[in-house]
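In the design runs reported in the main text, the only information available to the sequence generator was the tokenized backbone. The following block is the verbatim input for one such run; it is reproduced so that readers can re-run the procedure and compare outputs position by position.
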């Protein structure tokens, strides 16, 4: 297709927001425009280029090959231009909009919110949501969040991800159970845990299954005795003697230090998962978004 040199920059900005969010509604949220305005601008851009850019779907839109090519050409220059321009001041001296941050409930509660407390004291407003990574990333693309802490690196090039922290997984139980199987996981492997109740945050045992595969080199066959969709609740159940589980070390560090929980096995190569701080590409209109991002990256160096 012909170059976009003579096309209105506002149309290209709107086009890029639609391409990245996957819908006219998401783009309208990102840009602060009405959905009819976004639709009108995209029709104007399609007339100027003489090519269809998006296929309308029951939910959202799908970019055509022409749109993918155009996005690849204009994304870098538009992002650079936005970075140079920087976020504009809030109109009428009003405070900046709240920063919408989302991620796993446990990590937000234990590490993220304490790290952001000084910003809140300085007037930064936060709106925090919790959930699983895949739905949160879809909501980020649609403009519902400014930043997401993800447990996996997002696929594709529409989102900017920076490694934030590594979490190590540890096999733990209360002392009453640790005494019964003392030293046996290292010698006998997972058979040492037969007869000990397994506590998990989900029925499909994702963390425990990963630990079994990585450390013991075999498939986990034990069913869960207790499931509760919050790792802090799993930790509480373990401290009370409910059985064993696999937890991120940061979440049970204090309990391990006090003896309320005991590490049943300390492999030389424990499983580690990397968390990512994810943001939509381009400079944020809200000046507090980069402040929150920078504060999290600073705090993560000490985690």
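Verbatim output:
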């Amino acid at each position: 297709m012909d170059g976009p040199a003579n096309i209105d920059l506002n149309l290209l900005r709107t086009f890029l927001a639609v391409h990245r969010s996957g819908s006219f509604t998401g783009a309208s949220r990102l840009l602060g425009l009405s959905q009819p305005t976004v639709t009108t601008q995209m029709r104007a851009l399609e007339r100027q280029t003489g090519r269809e850019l998006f296929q309308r779907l029951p939910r959202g839109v799908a970019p055509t090959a022409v749109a993918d090519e155009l996005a690849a050409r204009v994304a870098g220059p538009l992002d650079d231009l936005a970075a140079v321009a920087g976020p504009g001041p809030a109109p009428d001296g009003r405070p900046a909009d709240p920063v919408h941050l989302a991620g796993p409930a446990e990590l937000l509660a234990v590490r993220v919110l304490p790290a952001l407390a000084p910003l809140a004291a300085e007037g930064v407003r936060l709106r925090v949501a919790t959930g699983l990574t895949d739905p949160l990333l879809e909501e980020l693309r649609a403009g519902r969040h400014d930043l997401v802490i993800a447990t996996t690196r997002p696929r594709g090039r529409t989102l900017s991800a920076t490694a934030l922290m590594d979490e190590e997984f540890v096999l733990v139980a209360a002392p009453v159970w640790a005494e019964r199987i003392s030293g046996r996981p290292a010698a006998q492997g997972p058979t040492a845990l037969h007869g000990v109740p397994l506590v998990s945050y989900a029925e499909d045992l994702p963390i425990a299954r990963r630990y079994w595969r990585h450390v013991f080199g075999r498939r986990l066959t034990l069913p869960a005795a207790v499931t509760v969709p919050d790792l802090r609740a799993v930790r509480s159940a373990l401290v009370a003697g409910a059985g064993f589980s696999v937890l991120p070390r940061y979440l049970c560090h204090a309990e391990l230090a006090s003896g309320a929980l005991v590490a049943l096995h300390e492999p030389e190569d424990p499983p580690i998962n990397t968390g990512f701080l994810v943001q939509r590409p381009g400079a944020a209109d809200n000046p507090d978004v980069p402040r929150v991002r920078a504060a999290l990256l600073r705090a993560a160096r000490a985690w």
